[in-house]
Amino acid sequence: MTEEEKQRLQKVIAQAGVASRRAAEKIILDGRVAVNGEIVKELGTKVSRHDEVMVDGVPIDSREKLVYYLLNKPRSVVTTNHDNKDRWTVIDILDDVDARVYPVGRLDYDTTGALILTNDGDLANQLMHPKGRVDKVYTAKVKGIATLEQLAPLKRGIVLKGKKTAPARVAIEKVDRDKKVSFVTITIHEGRNHQVKDMLFAVGFPVEKLRRDRYAFLDLVGLQPGEYRDLKHDEVKRLKAEDYRYLRRK
Question: Model's pTM, two decimal places?
């Protein structure tokens, strides 16, 4: 096999459904990968289909069937494959799925809503990459009586932890003046930790509850919290081909 026919080790691991490409890089650096019986920690290592690649002592199978699921994540569940605090994870919910799936991105412990899980490392990397600009639509219950004027800075972008956020789309769905709460819809395409909560807090509206209603074009219709479904072939095809250039659709 020529050098051109070989692939980077992290790509091979991702294609096998072990982890996303970014997570695969960390797995390699942590010394959990062996090629032909030798531990490899170099990210630039290339392997062929004839090389034996093992992760945590288990051979990977690059021919593993790719699977795709949409989960309506409930509250009090962590978005990870393993939790050192022994909390319930999104993987525990998919207990009848044999494939080694992992979540695409993350939702906070107390945030609910749309979450994709797959063993397709290439698609996961595409969707999570900042250049992908995948729309994520959230509904937030916030303290206070919100007005569009007060939310306007979010449409322009605000500085959080020294970095300006991309312009967001915002709307007020409902205001309960008796309880002094508002329901705000916000659409972003970035994926910083706690971003929606931090953005709303920055303009004076602490979040009480947060739900992600849509990821790209995928919504929660027909899914109760804790339920999930297979993505249809056409949905997967669209995810791979979708033009997510958010700013052009403003």
Answer: 0.75
